[in-house]
Design goal:
single chain, 287 residues, Arc Repressor Mutant, subunit A, 2 domains, seven-stranded antiparallel sheet, 11 strands, 42% helix, 23% strand, disordered N terminus, disordered C terminus
């Protein structure tokens, strides 16, 4: 099952001048274009989508950031990005190389897919399984280049579309009002301690019921969501100045520096110190 990724709340404006460095290979199969991108550490990739088509991007390895005009996302393996219509985005690799596969569906292909293409009709961001596995296999098929490659990639493109559409149909409708209120309450002050039981009583339900609704709506438990929001904020603070890591940890509500470092590594793939060192000269997280 796929999971919805968290909210975007940073401003557009990464400084990317002179830092682009990527290696790509592309193959077109029955109108669908598969491209494997390998972005060097601390380098960038500019992604674009056609007016009438749809772009699906799957992160294979590495961590980094995706910057769009509406905000920014954390990148990590398994992330699936769906962007219909005209699109421009900038991906920044972290301290290690970033590898991803993009699948471009032109308008004619979308018409041919019909109902199995509904998952490509709206902007969404997921953590997924089946669609990711097909994207992982795509570079090997592209490298093989034999007489079966084109048909294999066609099947992969349809399989990715089916996986996204199945998830879109399963999760049709707006999130629960209770889950939305809980998220707004958490976002109000991400540095405050979170008592899920107290929050549930405030919203008129049990803690187990609130956690179930929250996970169904956003893909994370309330506690995991809070930690992700704190780590997103930490990425900005770490690149802003030389404030000690322990002070940042305390300001964001972590128990201590080691508690902060453990969660930061889990979310961002590296320690706070290494993240700060890697971004001293590359401003990839906007204020």
């Amino acid at each position: 099952m796929n999971r919805e990724q968290g909210t975007r709340d940073w401003n557009w404006g990464p400084d990317i001048e002179g830092m682009s460095s990527e290696h790509t290979s592309a193959v077109a199969a029955n109108g669908v274009r598969f491209t494997e991108h390998r972005i060097d550490a601390r380098s960038t990739l500019r992604l674009t989508g056609d007016d009438d088509g749809a772009l699906c991007v799957v992160v294979i390895t590495g961590v980094g950031e995706l910057h769009e005009r509406a905000g920014s996302y954390l990148l990590r393996p398994g992330l699936i990005i769906v962007r219909p219509g005209k699109y421009v985005g900038v991906m920044n690799a972290g301290p290690e190389p970033l590898r991803l596969v993009s699948v471009q569906y032109p308008a004619g292909v979308l018409r041919r897919l019909g109902p199995i293409g509904i998952g490509l009709a709206q902007e969404r961001t997921f953590l997924g399984r089946s669609s990711v596995e097909l994207a992982w296999r795509a570079p090997a098929e592209m490298e093989a280049g034999d007489e079966f490659m084109s048909e294999s990639l066609r099947l992969f493109s349809e399989g990715i579309a089916i996986g996204l559409s199945r998830f879109a149909r399963h999760n049709r409708g707006r999130p629960s009002p209770v889950a939305m209120r809980a998220r707004r309450r958490i976002d109000r002050d991400i540095t405050a301690p979170l008592d899920v039981a107290a929050l549930a009583r405030e919203l008129g339900c049990s803690a187990a019921y609130l956690s179930r609704l929250f996970r169904r709506a956003f893909g994370f438990s309330p506690t995991d969501y809070l930690i992700r929001r704190r780590c997103e904020r930490a990425r900005v603070l770490l690149t802003r100045d030389d404030t000690p890591v322990a002070e940042i940890a305390a300001a964001l509500g972590f128990h201590d520096a080691s508690h902060f470092a453990r969660h930061f590594r889990r979310q961002c793939g590296t320690s706070p110190q290494r993240f700060r060192q890697a971004h001293r000269k590359v401003k990839s997280v906007p204020d």
